[in-house]
Amino acid sequence: MNKVIGLIYQMTDYSKFNKLPGNRKVLLRRKAKILKSINEIGYIRNPIVVNEKYEIVDGQGRFEALKELGLPIEYVIAENTGLKECVGLNLGQTNWKPLDYVESYAEQGVESYIRFLECLGAHHGISLQILYGIATNTVNVGGAGTKCLKNGELEFGEEWRKRIEPTLDMLESLSEELKYIKGEQRIIWTALAWCLNNTDCDPKRLHSVMQSKYPLFHPVVNTDMFLNELSDIYNKNLSAKSCIYFNTEYKQALKSNR
């Protein structure tokens, strides 16, 4: 025996539907892929899911494609659903990237994420992971940083932003040179930021060294290797008193923070 377990509605009043606050943006390539599929093989009925406020919980890409084509929107209403359910539905599809989470928390009004997103937008040459590493004074940040961003645990006060702005500006001024150093860019950027913020190195000398001596660096595979090479190049022709051994200082700092 067949049972009626829900109703599928249809309308062409696109203004009735709303973006779910905190949901990620629809990527142009995702929308283009759906449009191509509809144009080539037709639209296979697959209703979008909305809540009682007509906020789209699942099917943003389909909605945007159908709207562009002027086709009716088929939908089902799932009451009392929101962002949590939206994320859950997407886990089996295109997983949320760290930036999706940052944009989501920012849209929900979380101040630390708003500042972080503004800072990221102001420094186009710096990736999200690199910015997180510099902000948290962490070299080669990886999974732990991503987990923090996803869980809403990011702390990024205005004083943090002011503190790292000079470092970000300097690194951006070296972006052309740094990209020619092969290997892990995340290590290069976050390690340089750590040296600037945690040692007595001369920022002008460090800038000059990276600007003129970048061809001397071997492909970067780990933090130890990069900091040792950086020390060798930075210390050349300096007196013993002025030399800085970045890897030694970095390891000592790690021990003291345990």
Written overview of the protein:
The chain has 258 residues and is of the alpha/beta class. It has two domains: 82 residues, Conserved hypothetical protein from pyrococcus furiosus pfu- 392566-001, ParB domain; 132 residues, no CATH class. It contains 13 helices and five strands. It has a five-stranded mixed beta sheet with strand order 1-5-3-4-2. A hairpin with a 4-residue loop joins strand 3 and strand 4. Helix 8 packs across helix 10. The longest helix has 16 residues. It starts with 8 loop residues before the first strand and ends with a helix. The model has no long low-confidence stretch (mean pLDDT 86).
Features:
Conserved hypothetical protein from pyrococcus furiosus pfu- 392566-001, ParB domain; 54% helix; 258 residues; 13 helices; alpha/beta; 7% strand; five-stranded mixed sheet
Uncertain parts:
none
The topology string of helices and strands comes to EEHEEHEHHHHHHHHHHH
User: What is the number of strand segments?
Assistant: 5
Largest sheet: 5 strands, mixed
Number of domains: 2
β-sheet strand percentage: 5-15%
The average pLDDT score comes to: 86
Question: Which percent bin holds the helix content?
Answer: 40-55%
Question: Structural class from helices and strands?
Answer: alpha/beta
Biggest sheet, spatial arrangement of strands: 1-5-3-4-2
Helix count? Answer: 13
Shape descriptor reads: elongated
User: Oligomer, anyone?
Assistant: single chain
Q: What is the rounded Rg?
A: 24 Å
What separation lies between the terminal Cα atoms? 64 Å
